[in-house]
Amino acid sequence: MYAIGYTVVVLIETLSVREAREQLPSVLERFRNGDRTPVGVGSRRKTEAVMVPVEVFEELTAERARSLAQAAASVRAEGLLPGAEVEAIAERWARGEISTSQMRDLVRRLYGVP
Question: Minimal CB count within 10 Å: which of 4, 84, 88, 91?
Fold first, then answer.
């Protein structure tokens, strides 16, 4: 079996909080006109948040939900059932409420794994 890994680096425009406040109407207009380019916001040009059109956010959360469904199907194919606590944690991840590393930490803690 071969595994191919890659990292995609996306450079995005990052606005200061002041610039984001000033440019928000024009950013929203770009999104309304179909521009899907993410726009970062942060202090000292360090991206702390990203604005994307709602369609992009919905696609991202839908992809997480698909990944979650595939993982659950794989677990069931092995004759196992994920616990309710694990499912609740995974659902939070699928909705984007927690990061992948937070999800892993929560599941590991649940099973007492360091």
Answer: 4
